[in-house]
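ERR on first pass: missing label on line 2. Operator R.T. fixed the label and resubmitted. Corrected input:
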Amino acid sequence: MTTRPSGRTSDALRHVVLEPHVARHAEGSCRIRMGNTEVLCTASVEARVPPFLRGSGQGWVTAEYGMLPRATHTRGDREAARGKQSGRTQEIQRLIGRSLRAVTDLKAMGEMSITLDCDVLTADGGTRCASITGAWVALHLAFRHCLSKNVIATMPLKDQVAAVSCGLWQGEAVLDLDYDEDSKAQADANFVLTGKGGLVEVQGTAEGEPFSEAQLLSLLGLARHGTGQLFRHQRAAVGIG
Amino acid sequence: MTTRPSGRTSDALRHVVLEPHVARHAEGSCRIRMGNTEVLCTASVEARVPPFLRGSGQGWVTAEYGMLPRATHTRGDREAARGKQSGRTQEIQRLIGRSLRAVTDLKAMGEMSITLDCDVLTADGGTRCASITGAWVALHLAFRHCLSKNVIATMPLKDQVAAVSCGLWQGEAVLDLDYDEDSKAQADANFVLTGKGGLVEVQGTAEGEPFSEAQLLSLLGLARHGTGQLFRHQRAAVGIG
Amino acid sequence: MTTRPSGRTSDALRHVVLEPHVARHAEGSCRIRMGNTEVLCTASVEARVPPFLRGSGQGWVTAEYGMLPRATHTRGDREAARGKQSGRTQEIQRLIGRSLRAVTDLKAMGEMSITLDCDVLTADGGTRCASITGAWVALHLAFRHCLSKNVIATMPLKDQVAAVSCGLWQGEAVLDLDYDEDSKAQADANFVLTGKGGLVEVQGTAEGEPFSEAQLLSLLGLARHGTGQLFRHQRAAVGIG
Amino acid sequence: MTTRPSGRTSDALRHVVLEPHVARHAEGSCRIRMGNTEVLCTASVEARVPPFLRGSGQGWVTAEYGMLPRATHTRGDREAARGKQSGRTQEIQRLIGRSLRAVTDLKAMGEMSITLDCDVLTADGGTRCASITGAWVALHLAFRHCLSKNVIATMPLKDQVAAVSCGLWQGEAVLDLDYDEDSKAQADANFVLTGKGGLVEVQGTAEGEPFSEAQLLSLLGLARHGTGQLFRHQRAAVGIG
Amino acid sequence: MTTRPSGRTSDALRHVVLEPHVARHAEGSCRIRMGNTEVLCTASVEARVPPFLRGSGQGWVTAEYGMLPRATHTRGDREAARGKQSGRTQEIQRLIGRSLRAVTDLKAMGEMSITLDCDVLTADGGTRCASITGAWVALHLAFRHCLSKNVIATMPLKDQVAAVSCGLWQGEAVLDLDYDEDSKAQADANFVLTGKGGLVEVQGTAEGEPFSEAQLLSLLGLARHGTGQLFRHQRAAVGIG
Amino acid sequence: MTTRPSGRTSDALRHVVLEPHVARHAEGSCRIRMGNTEVLCTASVEARVPPFLRGSGQGWVTAEYGMLPRATHTRGDREAARGKQSGRTQEIQRLIGRSLRAVTDLKAMGEMSITLDCDVLTADGGTRCASITGAWVALHLAFRHCLSKNVIATMPLKDQVAAVSCGLWQGEAVLDLDYDEDSKAQADANFVLTGKGGLVEVQGTAEGEPFSEAQLLSLLGLARHGTGQLFRHQRAAVGIG
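pass 2 clean. output:
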């Protein structure tokens, strides 16, 4: 059996911390740490919906993603200064939005919008997955805020959602890649799973050699194991179950 | 057994036509039709590489994707007039590029670049998958052009690559969704597979309810069946095997 | 008498093909080939007008022009990726729009808009002229579609309009320049003429030495000859006269 | 015989003033007034050429055009604030550049560039034509500056160039349209002519009904008459002939 | 006592000329010259306010600032061509707007907007200060125009406002820096003062060594002296007091 | 004596915390809290300088400023998504850069650049001043990092620099405005001072009525008092004096 670069066992998550209520102004917020990766997630409630939903009686959940210029080893350009968001940024924020909408009853929200801002303070791999896991906490807290204000009558969240990356390291499936492992992995897959075990998103990419169906299933097995732990962290953070 | 909207059996591809050598100026080209979806793929060879590869002795393959404004039922904005590419466009062109690099020996190319332009003339679902399948033909022909000019010594393509979408329609897995089916599907997955059966990319998304592992495997089974046929079309188009 | 680069006689058009009804979704469409130049023209009907016409009871006809990146000998930048349309693109689409409005009774349209998209699939000189000639067919077919749906009561097109370029080659006037001839011509002029013989636009440019009034008249004479043939092609394509 | 809106006879220019040496820093400059239209033209010399001319031993002349926001009856958007130049602006600056290059021996310049900035201080019709006429003076003075500094050995300007607009007013050809006349004209044509009588650019546009060949020739006749006077003003401004 | 680069005494303004009514179309206008610096200021009245003031019964005064490309020693990029305004441009136009609003009774305006366009024709230092001083004249004249049309009932300008730069040259405070002095000054401060002696804006910047409180007060003393003269020029330009 | 909105005495700073070494990857970093305002400052070292300094042997210090979308009471647009930085953002980052350069011996740096990124995590007034104060700590630590790596031989920081805002509340000068106080202040001034007591920047703005010279001096007196305390916090954070 090989030893992966981080020295963790193949099925070990990094150290996970979910800290709720960290942003003074936001209706819901959570700072998530997965090892050295640190993402600040805020949920902002607005009493209007995008044009395509006006008059529908239905709400909307969307996400924006950003990275502080020095979240990474070498400083990256500030996207606001460059004047546009990269393709990677847009791809990630679309994924976060889809993942959260998958467990939200948009009709139960009524015509309001919640924007999840996921800003990476420190990046060490797995930022999109950490964003989804942390954003669920922020969203849950924002809905609780709305319930307490009687803006909505029932909790629109139908289930939990969390995400984790897995990869193939020297042919073996390993859980929760850090940056160093990710850059050396043969394949890299992000899984977004619900508390009830359903698949919301699967994104697997071969970095070098293609991977096999059996390998895909091994990766999925690890992801189930990892998200199981993340669901417990989420429940603790919002004080349920 | 349900009947899917298109009336096709669950494992039937749409009518496929791959027409090579359709662009007068490009080093390689292919027009692909999958039912009513029609994409023009061209491969353009340039004797330079992006900055991060200069001096590496290695080549690069990249892709750009576009849609004519009236490829769709209602006219869309021209991205050049809006002044930026949408997140969807950028996500698709990154996928096409990764898929083709997965079967290319970049070192065997030497320091040159090939850009695959995939322009959708008519859209009826599955445009990103059709782009990958057609782009492989254009890329193969461009490499053949380079071989005939003695720019490269060996064929850098190591394998075939093709893609197809599958989805869940009333709980049943169906192959090669058209636009109408895609908008009604419960889940939608794009599979990029190699000729030898390896997985290059898996992108599965639940549109409504999450899907199960068993369903993911059913979708993958159909994708293997469909890409098997696409590989034969590709070989016929480039005149091999 | 000199022989022009293409070998055609001075008053010969390239081979012309106008193929109507080529786009599945558009209300009107036409693919035009002038020799190796190939342009796809679609007409899209929308039930609204620009702000300056709201409440006027009058319609609007406008055009957008684009070129696929590998329509040309060497690949050009994709304008959507660069984030703006070039001055050349904007100049051409303004010309196409003006030319078609010159033969349209905008009041007879009522408050609706038609956008002509002219996308160059292969470029070999004369793309703006081919766009105008092909767009007239697409516009005619779109109006026929509106008549058949009783959206309008009478045909708003008052006349035909077509365009052709002419140039001076070694002092002699020649008709319908291809790319090679255009780059060698001493002067280059585009003429937009109506079926009844009126001038809608004249754009003459000296590339090297200025040209004389007599030369301008020779070029205009050839343009009359060439557009006469193009008008017959247009009528055949739409099935009139 | 009809009376045109301005009350001028059909062949009368507006009052013309060409004031040279008006910009403190520019190598050449001229403020031109044609009636109420006022344009500031400056010529800036730079010791470098665009990439496509590097190493060619040849120079380049280009132009930029702008309009102060309140040059017009109602304030227009500042193009710098909107973040892009309009199609009209780009079309005009391309025309000015082509017109001046037509009378410049680019080889005699050596590898340097001159940029003509034409900024409209007050607009009352004919701003593109006034820009060309005034820019020639600025360019001439800039070349004289280069001669005096021994940067070039001979005057690269081979001829004069000037421009004027003409139009059809109630069927009659009239010279030098002001804004009010331009908006009422049946056709509008800009002619760019050289001192020796050659045509550099002809741009005729029917605003309503198409125009005839005979009308085109009447307009051209007036333009010869008008530019004849402008050439005298130019020579006086630069102190030749 | 040192001699400053311009040879002026330490408390001497450059030659000042305020020329009102210079723009044909604007409701108010003024060309201001401070030595070689020349700025054209126009005031444009519009019968609408920004969204945040709709329904408030209150008006708005804002400013835009620009510089002709060859206003400077070496030609600068045209901001419209670059596609964005620099930080310096935005900083200056915000300053001009704030300064004029400080002496305007926005309620007395009713719901209308006035935009001050300050375009630098020649730059030789102090352009932002000259813009403020000249814009006050343009604004005063625009309000007079509105009074004469009975659009407003009382003059909304409560006081005069003018600005001047001062600096430290070899330790000594000097008034009204030109470009050459500004580039050599140890500190540079812009003061915006009202006719009644109040401070509206103070912006002091150490270029090299920090400056002291005593030096700040010397600079302010000079600014009072200089704006006292500018107020007289303003009153003369608008024909009051 | 009035009571200011925050209940603090007129010369009381908010609670100040400077936390160094908070960013894993940056060469220097500091999180600064001034009451509820919280800014993350990182210093990134790069071994190159802007074009205008190449070959000069001199270094450069610059700053970028950003605000997380939900740092404020209501969510603001993400500047990266809007595609440009606001004028306010650009004005602030220019101020931060100038302030730090004022206490840096650029020659002692050699040809390298340091970029200070100041990202506001929570905004409650005074973010630009907090950015300067915190950025000095990050810059000091980055220089220490360079000294420890022998990239530079001597500490290029010549002095400390810190900033604080002051304002007039009901005619009385008060120190360190929070958001609520800032929005109600009659005047608002930012002072950037050095450890030795010199003035680097003074920016005073009357929000309503102009202010007097005596009031400006009162504000400056408070700023001296406040920055004195901030200098002690800075020294403690970097472990000197």
